[in-house]
Amino acid sequence: MAARPPADVLLVVTGAPFASDMLTTVLRLVDELLRRGRSVLVWACGYTTMLTQAALGAHKPRDVDDWAARYPSTAAVVSGLLAEYPALFGWEVCAYCAQDRGAGPHVPGVRTRAPSRIGTNVAAARTTVYIGGA
Amino acid sequence: MAGRYLAVVDHAYRGGPEVQFCDLFYLARGLHRQLGGLDVVLRGPAVTYAVDTGPLPRLRVGARHLDLPDPRRSLRALLAADSAVSVDEPALRALGLTPDRVLPGVVCRDSASLTRDWPDYEGVWFL
Q: Do B62 and A24 touch (CB under 8 A)?
Protein backbone atom coordinates (compact mmCIF):
# COMPACT_ATOMS: atom_id res chain seq x y z
CA MET A 1 0.00 0.00 0.00
CA ALA A 2 1.45 3.36 -0.98
CA ALA A 3 2.54 5.74 1.78
CA ARG A 4 -0.01 8.46 2.46
CA PRO A 5 1.25 12.06 2.52
CA PRO A 6 1.11 13.88 5.89
CA ALA A 7 -2.39 14.89 6.89
CA ASP A 8 -3.48 18.49 7.20
CA VAL A 9 -5.40 17.44 10.29
CA LEU A 10 -4.83 14.41 12.50
CA LEU A 11 -7.71 13.49 14.81
CA VAL A 12 -6.56 11.35 17.72
CA VAL A 13 -9.75 9.77 19.04
CA THR A 14 -9.46 7.97 22.36
CA GLY A 15 -12.91 8.38 23.89
CA ALA A 16 -15.53 5.64 23.89
CA PRO A 17 -18.42 5.64 21.44
CA PHE A 18 -22.00 5.13 22.72
CA ALA A 19 -21.18 7.35 25.70
CA SER A 20 -21.08 10.92 24.44
CA ASP A 21 -21.37 13.09 21.34
CA MET A 22 -17.74 12.32 20.52
CA LEU A 23 -18.34 10.47 17.27
CA THR A 24 -20.78 13.14 16.08
CA THR A 25 -18.01 15.70 16.59
CA VAL A 26 -15.43 13.55 14.83
CA LEU A 27 -17.57 12.90 11.77
CA ARG A 28 -18.69 16.53 11.51
CA LEU A 29 -15.07 17.68 11.57
CA VAL A 30 -14.03 15.04 9.03
CA ASP A 31 -16.88 15.89 6.67
CA GLU A 32 -16.26 19.64 6.79
CA LEU A 33 -12.50 19.33 6.36
CA LEU A 34 -12.83 16.97 3.40
CA ARG A 35 -15.33 19.28 1.72
CA ARG A 36 -12.74 22.04 2.03
CA GLY A 37 -10.16 19.85 0.33
CA ARG A 38 -8.11 19.21 3.47
CA SER A 39 -6.57 15.84 4.15
CA VAL A 40 -7.63 14.11 7.35
CA LEU A 41 -6.26 11.13 9.23
CA VAL A 42 -8.19 9.58 12.11
CA TRP A 43 -6.21 7.63 14.67
CA ALA A 44 -8.69 5.39 16.46
CA CYS A 45 -7.71 4.29 19.96
CA GLY A 46 -9.53 2.56 22.80
CA TYR A 47 -13.11 1.49 22.09
CA THR A 48 -13.15 3.58 18.93
CA THR A 49 -11.29 0.62 17.40
CA MET A 50 -14.61 -1.28 17.54
CA LEU A 51 -16.28 0.99 14.98
CA THR A 52 -14.63 -0.30 11.82
CA GLN A 53 -14.85 -4.06 12.32
CA ALA A 54 -15.73 -5.97 9.17
CA ALA A 55 -18.10 -8.14 11.19
CA LEU A 56 -20.41 -5.15 11.68
CA GLY A 57 -21.48 -5.52 8.06
CA ALA A 58 -23.09 -2.80 6.00
CA HIS A 59 -26.06 -2.12 8.28
CA LYS A 60 -27.04 -1.90 11.90
CA PRO A 61 -29.40 -4.59 13.17
CA ARG A 62 -33.04 -4.14 12.17
CA ASP A 63 -35.26 -1.64 13.94
CA VAL A 64 -38.09 -3.80 15.28
CA ASP A 65 -40.37 -0.75 15.28
CA ASP A 66 -39.67 0.00 11.62
CA TRP A 67 -38.63 -3.22 9.95
CA ALA A 68 -38.25 -1.70 6.48
CA ALA A 69 -35.79 0.98 7.58
CA ARG A 70 -32.08 0.34 7.12
CA TYR A 71 -29.33 2.19 8.93
CA PRO A 72 -25.64 2.06 7.98
CA SER A 73 -23.11 0.60 10.36
CA THR A 74 -20.24 2.76 11.53
CA ALA A 75 -17.93 0.52 9.49
CA ALA A 76 -19.97 1.33 6.38
CA VAL A 77 -19.83 5.05 7.13
CA VAL A 78 -16.04 4.96 7.38
CA SER A 79 -15.80 2.77 4.27
CA GLY A 80 -17.93 5.26 2.38
CA LEU A 81 -15.63 8.14 3.29
CA LEU A 82 -12.55 6.14 2.32
CA ALA A 83 -14.10 5.38 -1.08
CA GLU A 84 -15.29 8.94 -1.59
CA TYR A 85 -12.03 10.64 -0.62
CA PRO A 86 -9.24 8.12 -1.34
CA ALA A 87 -6.56 10.78 -1.66
CA LEU A 88 -7.59 12.85 1.35
CA PHE A 89 -8.93 10.54 4.03
CA GLY A 90 -7.38 7.82 6.14
CA TRP A 91 -8.48 5.85 9.20
CA GLU A 92 -5.86 4.06 11.28
CA VAL A 93 -6.55 1.75 14.20
CA CYS A 94 -4.25 1.31 17.18
CA ALA A 95 -3.12 -2.32 17.08
CA TYR A 96 -2.76 -2.57 20.86
CA CYS A 97 -6.23 -1.20 21.64
CA ALA A 98 -7.79 -3.34 18.91
CA GLN A 99 -6.13 -6.50 20.15
CA ASP A 100 -6.98 -5.67 23.75
CA ARG A 101 -10.66 -5.49 22.80
CA GLY A 102 -10.77 -8.26 20.23
CA ALA A 103 -11.61 -5.66 17.59
CA GLY A 104 -10.94 -6.80 14.07
CA PRO A 105 -10.46 -7.62 11.34
CA HIS A 106 -11.37 -4.24 9.95
CA VAL A 107 -13.03 -3.17 6.72
CA PRO A 108 -10.75 -2.75 3.68
CA GLY A 109 -8.85 0.50 3.67
CA VAL A 110 -8.61 0.80 7.44
CA ARG A 111 -5.01 0.32 8.51
CA THR A 112 -3.94 -1.29 11.77
CA ARG A 113 -0.86 0.40 13.17
CA ALA A 114 1.49 -0.13 16.10
CA PRO A 115 0.94 2.27 19.02
CA SER A 116 4.42 3.65 18.43
CA ARG A 117 3.08 5.08 15.19
CA ILE A 118 1.11 7.79 16.95
CA GLY A 119 4.18 9.97 17.52
CA THR A 120 5.09 9.72 13.85
CA ASN A 121 1.58 10.75 12.87
CA VAL A 122 1.58 13.73 15.23
CA ALA A 123 4.98 14.85 13.98
CA ALA A 124 3.87 14.60 10.36
CA ALA A 125 0.45 16.25 10.67
CA ARG A 126 0.12 19.99 10.25
CA THR A 127 -2.49 20.12 13.01
CA THR A 128 -3.44 17.55 15.63
CA VAL A 129 -6.75 17.58 17.46
CA TYR A 130 -6.98 15.21 20.42
CA ILE A 131 -10.51 14.08 21.16
CA GLY A 132 -10.47 12.18 24.42
CA GLY A 133 -13.01 11.33 27.05
CA ALA A 134 -11.87 7.79 27.78
CA MET B 1 -47.45 0.29 40.06
CA ALA B 2 -47.33 -3.28 41.20
CA GLY B 3 -45.41 -5.36 38.71
CA ARG B 4 -44.02 -2.29 36.97
CA TYR B 5 -40.40 -1.19 36.78
CA LEU B 6 -38.93 2.28 37.03
CA ALA B 7 -36.04 3.44 34.85
CA VAL B 8 -34.01 6.37 36.15
CA VAL B 9 -31.96 8.18 33.54
CA ASP B 10 -29.29 10.62 34.73
CA HIS B 11 -26.87 10.80 31.82
CA ALA B 12 -27.50 12.54 28.52
CA TYR B 13 -25.48 12.53 25.31
CA ARG B 14 -25.26 8.78 24.85
CA GLY B 15 -23.96 8.60 21.30
CA GLY B 16 -25.01 9.88 17.88
CA PRO B 17 -24.18 8.24 14.54
CA GLU B 18 -23.19 4.99 16.24
CA VAL B 19 -26.64 4.86 17.88
CA GLN B 20 -29.05 6.27 15.27
CA PHE B 21 -32.52 4.77 15.97
CA CYS B 22 -31.32 2.52 18.80
CA ASP B 23 -31.24 5.10 21.56
CA LEU B 24 -31.81 4.70 25.27
CA PHE B 25 -35.57 4.92 24.93
CA TYR B 26 -35.61 2.30 22.21
CA LEU B 27 -34.25 0.01 24.90
CA ALA B 28 -36.83 1.39 27.34
CA ARG B 29 -39.65 0.58 24.91
CA GLY B 30 -38.38 -2.97 24.62
CA LEU B 31 -38.22 -3.34 28.38
CA HIS B 32 -41.68 -1.80 28.68
CA ARG B 33 -43.05 -4.47 26.35
CA GLN B 34 -41.21 -7.38 27.93
CA LEU B 35 -41.58 -6.52 31.61
CA GLY B 36 -45.23 -5.59 31.55
CA GLY B 37 -44.66 -1.91 32.28
CA LEU B 38 -41.77 0.50 32.63
CA ASP B 39 -41.97 4.10 33.75
CA VAL B 40 -39.18 6.62 33.22
CA VAL B 41 -37.72 9.37 35.37
CA LEU B 42 -35.33 11.89 33.81
CA ARG B 43 -32.86 13.69 36.06
CA GLY B 44 -29.73 15.78 35.65
CA PRO B 45 -28.78 16.62 32.03
CA ALA B 46 -31.16 13.87 30.86
CA VAL B 47 -34.12 16.18 31.52
CA THR B 48 -33.32 17.82 28.20
CA TYR B 49 -34.48 14.66 26.45
CA ALA B 50 -38.04 15.72 27.29
CA VAL B 51 -37.70 19.33 26.17
CA ASP B 52 -39.54 19.90 22.94
CA THR B 53 -37.53 21.21 20.00
CA GLY B 54 -37.85 21.68 16.28
CA PRO B 55 -36.97 18.90 13.85
CA LEU B 56 -33.46 17.51 14.29
CA PRO B 57 -30.98 18.04 11.46
CA ARG B 58 -29.46 14.95 9.89
CA LEU B 59 -25.71 14.43 10.11
CA ARG B 60 -23.97 14.82 6.76
CA VAL B 61 -21.02 12.47 6.33
CA GLY B 62 -19.72 12.59 2.79
CA ALA B 63 -22.48 11.43 0.47
CA ARG B 64 -24.55 10.06 3.37
CA HIS B 65 -27.02 11.72 5.67
CA LEU B 66 -27.43 9.92 8.98
CA ASP B 67 -30.38 10.04 11.33
CA LEU B 68 -29.17 10.93 14.79
CA PRO B 69 -31.04 9.70 17.88
CA ASP B 70 -34.30 11.56 18.38
CA PRO B 71 -35.12 11.29 22.09
CA ARG B 72 -38.36 13.29 21.73
CA ARG B 73 -39.71 10.90 19.13
CA SER B 74 -38.68 7.98 21.32
CA LEU B 75 -40.31 9.49 24.40
CA ARG B 76 -43.53 10.16 22.46
CA ALA B 77 -43.59 6.49 21.51
CA LEU B 78 -43.10 5.49 25.14
CA LEU B 79 -45.91 7.80 26.26
CA ALA B 80 -48.17 6.40 23.54
CA ALA B 81 -47.48 2.93 24.94
CA ASP B 82 -48.74 4.05 28.38
CA SER B 83 -45.37 4.52 30.03
CA ALA B 84 -45.33 7.33 32.59
CA VAL B 85 -42.49 9.78 31.98
CA SER B 86 -41.48 12.22 34.72
CA VAL B 87 -38.89 14.97 34.85
CA ASP B 88 -37.02 16.30 37.86
CA GLU B 89 -38.22 19.89 37.86
CA PRO B 90 -35.31 21.38 39.87
CA ALA B 91 -32.88 19.84 37.36
CA LEU B 92 -34.93 21.35 34.54
CA ARG B 93 -34.91 24.80 36.13
CA ALA B 94 -31.19 24.54 36.92
CA LEU B 95 -30.64 24.45 33.17
CA GLY B 96 -32.73 27.57 32.68
CA LEU B 97 -35.72 25.60 31.36
CA THR B 98 -39.32 25.68 32.51
CA PRO B 99 -42.05 23.02 32.66
CA ASP B 100 -43.94 24.55 29.75
CA ARG B 101 -41.06 23.43 27.51
CA VAL B 102 -41.52 19.68 28.08
CA LEU B 103 -43.42 17.34 25.78
CA PRO B 104 -47.17 16.96 26.35
CA GLY B 105 -47.78 14.04 28.68
CA VAL B 106 -44.48 14.40 30.54
CA VAL B 107 -44.97 15.31 34.20
CA CYS B 108 -42.62 17.65 36.08
CA ARG B 109 -42.18 16.71 39.75
CA ASP B 110 -40.01 17.75 42.66
CA SER B 111 -36.98 15.62 43.46
CA ALA B 112 -38.39 14.13 46.66
CA SER B 113 -41.59 12.89 45.06
CA LEU B 114 -39.59 11.14 42.37
CA THR B 115 -38.04 8.80 44.91
CA ARG B 116 -41.14 8.41 47.10
CA ASP B 117 -42.61 5.95 44.61
CA TRP B 118 -39.64 3.63 44.53
CA PRO B 119 -40.96 1.04 47.03
CA ASP B 120 -44.08 0.62 44.91
CA TYR B 121 -42.11 -0.64 41.91
CA GLU B 122 -40.99 -4.17 41.22
CA GLY B 123 -37.54 -2.77 40.56
CA VAL B 124 -35.74 0.55 40.12
CA TRP B 125 -33.11 0.46 37.40
CA PHE B 126 -30.60 3.11 36.42
CA LEU B 127 -30.34 3.13 32.66
A: no
